[in-house]
């Protein structure tokens, strides 16, 4: 699909008497001209142009060929709608400040901050991007969406490292403005690590195995940490869980790739699926999420769409496991463990 952006174009003509200056330049009345449309005539004869400054509307003619009495008629087209011809901070275009040596104005010397050893060793780098996407289905409606992704990584000194991620790949945008709460972002994660300890904050995955064949696996929002000192090892977690685990069986429909709507345990429609918690099977085979794979999911609207890689029909058995929140309650999840290795030297 190609998106064309049309700009308004108007035609104009200038009659200019040559001034005979050294630069042999003709200044047009308009700026932002279309170079291909410029035609310069003198005595009904076409004049060859050496250079066209289309942004500032200036034309350079061959030097030394014309006198100051010659009149030129220039026909051209231009863009009447203005748009920025320069980018960057405006302070760069301010005139330089000139101060005489004998002036009474006193300028304080620049004092460089003193950095301690820890700040000198600190090197933190960040990067990110914001994107916008315009969807135009064949039915005629359109949808404007976007997303963001930011990364943070670095060394804080004293063997302390930090890393973090803030991302959301599906933010619905509206012409009246959009406000997104931090809880609805796909991923918020911050990690601080050291040889003796580590801490994770934000969207964390808690995994704990006990009695060999038993395990606890939950997606939480909070903080967890691990530490080790001498022969002691420990861990703790303090987080909130607003998720409910649910399994949903759906019968496919002929020629319908989606959306297949997810409901809560009590049949409620207003739910928010936690990102990354879903597992989808079709006829007993687990599917892979992604536009280039088997399915996509809108976590905000709780809808699943299948790609052309897998065709859904009336005999398709769809099984979906997922965690969701219905905003009605929140559960506190906390715990800790301390271990000692008596065999350590």
Total domain units: 3
Order of helices and strands: EEEEEEEHEEEEEEEEEEEEEEEE
Could you give the distance between the termini?
A: 68 Å
**Overall radius of gyration:** 33 Å
Oligomer category: single chain
Indicate the structural class: mainly beta
Number of helices: 1
Poorly predicted ranges: 1-6, 175-179
Basic shape: elongated
Mean pLDDT: 76
Summarize the biggest pleated sheet: 8 strands, antiparallel
Residues in helix, %: under 10%
Strand percentage, roughly?
A: over 45%
**Strand order within the widest sheet?**
8-9-10-11-12-13-14-23
Number of strands: 23
Protein architecture, described:
This protein is mainly β and 345 residues long. It has 3 domains: 69 residues, no CATH class; 121 residues; 82 residues, no CATH class. It is built from 1 helix and 23 strands. Strands 8-9-10-11-12-13-14-23 form an 8-stranded antiparallel beta sheet. Strands 15, 17, 18, 19 and 22 form a 5-stranded antiparallel beta sheet that branches. The chain is elongated and about 100 Å long. The N terminus is likely disordered.
Descriptors:
single chain; mainly beta; eight-stranded antiparallel sheet; disordered N terminus; 345 residues; 3 domains; five-stranded antiparallel sheet; 1 helix
